[in-house]
Amino acid sequence: MILLVQDYQIVLYAMMHFILLIFGYISSHLAVIKQEERKQFDRKLWLYILLFFAFGSVVVFPLFDIGRYIFLKVWEGFAYVFTFIASKIGELLKFIEPIERERQEQESSPLGGGEQDNYDELGPSLMEIIGPIIYWSILTLIIGVICSLQSVFLKINSTK
C-alpha cells in the first residue's frame, strides 16, 4: 500500500500524537495529586509546553527531508553490511561440499537426463544433512537468550 499523504502531514500527525500523549500524562498526574499541591501547579506550564512544541515543529519541519535522507542511508548501510556478511558466509559454505560428489557429477553422461539420475544416486549433500542441525541450533540459542533475559528481568522486578 502506498502512502498518499504529504511529508508535512506525517510530521503534523506525529506531533499531534505526541502532544496528546504529553497532555494526557500531565492531566493524569494532576488528577491524582492532592488539591493543595495542584494549586502550586503553574498555569504557565501549558504555555511553555505549547511553545516548546511549536518551536520543535518549526525546527523539525525543514530538517525532515535531511533526516529522512540520513535515515535511509544508514538503513542502506545496514543492509549492505548484512548482504556482505551473508555473501562471505555463502563463500565459506561452498567449500563444504564433498570432493567425491563433484567428481561423480563431472563424470556423468553428457546427455540430458544423466545428471539428474546421478544426483539421485549420490544421496543428500553435506549441507542437506547439517542444515537442520544448524537451524535448530540457532533456534535453541535464540530461545535460550530470550529465556535468560526474561529471568534476569523477572529477578530485577522481584527485588523492587
From TrEMBL:
<keyword id="KW-1133">Transmembrane helix</keyword>
<feature type="transmembrane region" description="Helical">
    <location>
        <begin position="133"/>
        <end position="154"/>
    </location>
</feature>
<keyword id="KW-0812">Transmembrane</keyword>
<keyword id="KW-0472">Membrane</keyword>
<feature type="transmembrane region" description="Helical">
    <location>
        <begin position="12"/>
        <end position="33"/>
    </location>
</feature>
<protein>
    <recommendedName>
        <fullName>DUF4199 domain-containing protein</fullName>
    </recommendedName>
</protein>
<feature type="transmembrane region" description="Helical">
    <location>
        <begin position="45"/>
        <end position="64"/>
    </location>
</feature>
